[in-house]
């Protein structure tokens, strides 16, 4: 399975920090079998919004192997391009296992695959429900600034939110990196 990372409009070092923080806290580094196969779409600026450019990147990296299962992880503006690419990839016969949006506030998320949101605060979490709540979600508590979700997910404490339970729900405390790890294990 491939994990496709679609970052937002920010310094590339933040994406490296995200991957390191997520992997260091959520996997056994001594066991290479547990290391996910990650592809980072390196489009910068306006290209992060382009589903077409992400799709071309996928076609190039996966050699048009549509049957290869993929999980998309998008952050901020990268969620826009990533959801479009995931939908088009699936419409062309691609195997999209899941879509994970990290702080994709204001981005409608619908698809014929599981969708999850991670938000930097409760307001962003609940106000995103009208744009597609997805399945299991996460929100930071206490709230953090937007870039902290990407820079250091292992340091962002919060709650697992299941929209089928409704609001309010009992807290299930963990950090964002742990939440990501648990989601990815579900789709192995």
Automatic annotation (TrEMBL):
Name the UniProt record assigns to this protein: Uncharacterized protein
Lineage: Bacteria, Bacillati, Cyanobacteriota, Cyanophyceae, Nostocales
InterPro entries, A to Z: AB_hydrolase_fold
